[in-house]
Write a structure and sequence with these properties.
The protein is an alpha+beta fold. 25% of the residues lie in helices and 30% in strands. It contains 13 helices and 33 strands. An 8-stranded parallel beta sheet has the order 26-25-24-23-17-16-15-27. Strands 2, 3, 4, 9, 10, 13 and 14 form a 7-stranded antiparallel beta sheet that branches. A 5-stranded antiparallel beta sheet has the order 1-5-12-11-8, with no helix packed on it. α11 links the parallel β25 and β26 (428-430). α8 (309-325) packs parallel to α9 (350-365) and α12 runs parallel beside α13 (473-484). It is globular and about 65 Å long. Bound molecules: 4-nitrophenyl alpha-D-galactopyranoside. 4-nitrophenyl alpha-D-galactopyranoside binds next to loops.
C-alpha cells in the first residue's frame, strides 16, 4: 500500500503537485492508519492512496439512490449505461466520465479484513477507482481555488477485523469527523408516495388523516405529503388545483395530532417553472447558459446555484415559510443537483456549494426534522437528521427493474442492510417506506413482512405508505410487531455472502432479536438453518 507514493509510516510530510500542495500527517489508527492534512492552492484531482485491489469488495455509490453492493474487481454495470447516455449523467456520479471508464466506489471501499474510507466530504469528492489490478483513492477538488487552504478530507485505513466490524468503526469515525448530533426522535409516520405517486389529491390526504386519527392501530407521529401537491418543480408555494395553501395543509394535519411533513426538491428547477423563468441566473451554468442537471417528470431540470446570494435568500425564505406554515418534517429530495460540476457565483467546489445549500435549509428550519433523499451521502453528514440510504421501494419485489436498479423493494431493502452501519452514526437511516396493504399491491405477505421486520430490527425510521383503508388486520399486526422490534442496536453479518443476512439487535425493549433475512429468490441457509426465499425468520 502506498500513501502519496510511499509505504505508509507514522510521521509528517509535504507533497507538491504544482497547482497545489499538501502538508500531512500519518498516525496509527488501531491496526491501520489515519491520514490528515491541509491542502493549499488550486487542486484538481489528488491521488492519495494506492493498493492491490481485492477480487471481491463492497462498493458504494455517492448518493442515496445508488447501490452499496458486493462486486468483483472487473465487474461492469450495463444497467447504468443507459443512464449515462441520457441526460441524467450526474445521477450516479459527479464525475460521470470516470464512472463510465471504470468501477468506482465513492467515499469508502471494504473487503475481508479491510476498509479504506475518507471521513468527510466538505470540499472534495472522495472516491476509489479500480485501475488494472489496483484500487486508488482520489480526492477530486474540481479545480476550485482553496484560498488560504482547507483541511484535507481525512482518510482511514482500517484492518484486521470482519468487514462489518470495520464498517461500524468507519461509521463512528466519520460521525465524529462530521460532528454528527443525532436527533432523539426516530420517526414513525405516513407518506403518500408509494400508494398515490404523482396522482395524489388533497382528498386522499384528508381521507387517510381521518382514518389514522380514529385508529390506534396507526400510531404515526408524522404525516408527510410527497410529490404531487405542487404546481411545478421549483414553485413550492404554488399548490396544484384542488390543494389548499401550505398553512391549511399543515393545519389539517396538526389538527389530527400529527406533525406535518412535506416533500420538496429544493435545489431543482424545472424548465417550465416560474423559478427558472424569473431567475435563470440563479442556476448552475456552463458556457454561459443554465446547465441541465437531470431530466425527470418529462422535463429538463436545472440546479440551483447555492452559492448565489439571492438564490440562497430564496432558499432560506422557502423553508422559513414552510416552517411558519406549521411543517416540522422536511423530506428534501433530488439533492445531488446542487453538487453537479459547473459554474457558480463563487468558485468553491460543487461539494462545498452543496453543503452551503443544506446549511441554509438547516438555518431556516431550525430543529425541524430534515430527511435527505437523492443526496450525496458523506457531504450530508451532520446536516440532516434522517437519510434515505437506498433506491425507491415499490409495491412489487423485483419486477420492472429500471436501468438504475429500481425502483423495487428488493434493492431498497438490500441497500438498507448494506448501509446499516451508517444508522445512528451519520444520521437515522430511512430504508424507504414499509407497505402494509394486502390489496392493490404486488408484494406477498412474506415479502412485506421481510421488509418491515428488517427495518424494525435495524431500528430504522418506519414510514408506511398505504391507502389506509386497504390495510387489514394482517397489516395492522405487522406494523405493531415491526414497531415492537425497534429500540435496539443492530449489527449485520453476511455482507460479503450470498444474500442471506443476519440482523442481530441488542438490546431493545424486546430483548435480543436475531433475524435471518433471505433477500434472494432461492432458499439459503445460515449455520445449518434453512431460510426460504424472500423471507425473514426469527432465530431463537
Ligand atoms: C417523488 C419521489 C419520491 C421518492 C424519491 C424520489 O427519475 N428518477 O431518477 C427518479 C429517481 C427517484 C425518484 C423519482 C425519480 O424518487 O426517492 O421517495 O419522493 O422522488 O417524485
Amino acid at each position: 500500500m502506498k500513501i502519496f507514493g510511499k509505504a505508509p509510516a507514522p510521521g509528517a510530510g509535504r507533497i507538491d503537485f504544482g497547482a497545489c500542495h499538501i502538508v500531512y500527517k500519518i498516525a496509527r489508527q488501531d491496526a491501520g492508519y489515519r491520514l490528515t492534512g491541509k491542502i493549499f492552492g488550486k487542486p484538481g484531482r489528488i491521488e492519495v492512496l494506492r493498493t492491490k485491489a481485492p477480487e471481491i469488495f463492497l462498493m458504494n455509490n455517492w448518493q442515496s439512490w445508488g447501490p452499496m453492493q458486493k462486486v468483483s474487481r472487473g465487474q461492469r454495470f450495463p444497467e447504468f449505461e443507459e443512464i449515462r447516455q441520457s441526460e441524467r449523467g450526474y445521477l450516479f456520479s459527479p464525475i460521470p466520465e470516470d464512472f463510465r471508464r471504470t468501477l468506482i466506489s465513492d467515499y469508502f471501499a471494504g473487503w475481508d479484513r479491510s476498509v479504506l474510507g475518507f471521513l468527510t466530504s466538505r470540499d472534495a469528492h472522495p472516491f476509489f477507482a479500480v485501475e488494472g489490478d489496483e484500487i486508488i483513492g482520489y480526492l477530486e477538488y474540481f479545480g476550485a481555488d482553496l484560498g488560504d487552504g482547507a483541511e484535507m478530507e481525512p482518510l482511514v485505513v482500517l484492518q484486521g477485523k470482519q468487514v462489518e466490524d470495520l464498517l461500524e468503526e468507519y461509521g463512528v469515525l466519520a460521525g465524529a469527523a462530521n460532528s454528527v448530533a443525532l436527533n432523539p426522535w426516530n420517526p414513525v409516520g405516513w407518506c403518500s408516495w408509494y400508494q398515490y405517486f404523482g396522482k395524489l389529491t388533497w382528498t386522499d390526504v384528508l381521507k387517510n388523516l381521518d382514518i389514522a386519527d380514529r385508529n390506534p392501530a396507526f400510531p404515526f407521529d408524522v404525516f408527510q405529503i410527497d410529490d404531487g401537491y405542487e404546481e411545478d418543480i421549483g414553485d413550492w408555494d404554488k399548490g396544484r388545483a384542488g390543494y389548499p395553501s401550505q398553512e391549511e395543509m399543515a393545519r389539517a394535519i396538526r389538527l389530527r395530532g400529527f406533525k406535518a411533513g412535506i416533500w420538496t426538491a429544493p435545489f431543482s428547477a424545472a424548465e417550465t417553472s416560474d423559478l427558472f423563468h424569473k431567475h435563470p441566473d440563479w442556476m448552475v451554468s456552463e458556457n454561459g447558459l443554465p446547465k441541465v442537471a437531470y431530466r425527470a417528470w418529462g422535463k429538463a431540470i436545472y440546479a440551483l446555484d447555492t452559492t448565489h446570494a439571492e438564490a440562497k435568500r430564496w432558499l432560506y425564505d422557502t423553508f422559513a415559510a414552510q416552517k411558519k406554515a406549521g411543517f416540522e418534517y422536511f423530506k428534501i429530495d433530488f439533492l445531488f443537483a446542487a453538487a453537479i460540476p459547473g459554474v457558480r457565483a463563487r468558485n468553491v467546489t460543487p461539494i462545498r456549494a452543496y453543503r452551503e445549500g443544506l446549511e441554509t435549509i438547516r438555518q431556516a428550519v431550525g430543529r425541524g426534522f430534515v430527511l435527505g433523499c437523492g443526496a450525496p451521502l458523506l457531504p450530508s453528514a451532520g446536516l440532516v437528521d434522517g437519510m434515505r440510504i437506498g433506491e425507491d421501494t415499490a409495491p412489487y419485489w423485483k419486477t420492472k427493474p429500471s436501468a438504475f436498479q429500481g425502483p423495487n423493494a428488493f434493492f431498497a431493502l438490500r441497500n438498507a442492510v448494506m448501509r446499516q452501519f451508517m444508522h445512528g452514526r451519520l444520521w437515522l437511516n430511512d430504508p424507504d417506506c414499509i407497505l402494509l396493504r394486502s390489496s392493490d399491491i404486488g408484494l406477498s405477505g412474506n415479502e412485506r413482512q421481510l421488509f418491515a421486520w428488517a427495518a424494525g430490527a435495524m431500528d430504522n425510521m418506519i414510514i408506511a405508505s398505504d391507502d389506509l383503508s386497504l390495510v387489514g388486520e394482517h397489516g395492522k399486526a405487522l406494523l405493531e410487531t415491526t414497531l415492537g422490534m425497534r429500540g435496539g442496536k443492530a449489527r449485520i453479518r453476511g455482507l460479503l455472502g450470498d444474500g442471506l443476512y443476519l440482523i442481530e439487535s441488542k438490546v431493545g425493549p424486546a430483548g435480543v432479536i436475531t433475524l435471518a433475512a433471505n433477500l434472494e429468490d432461492k432458499a439459503l441457509s445460515w449455520k445449518g438453518k434453512t431460510v426460504p426465499a424472500r423471507t425473514a425468520i426469527r432465530l431463537p
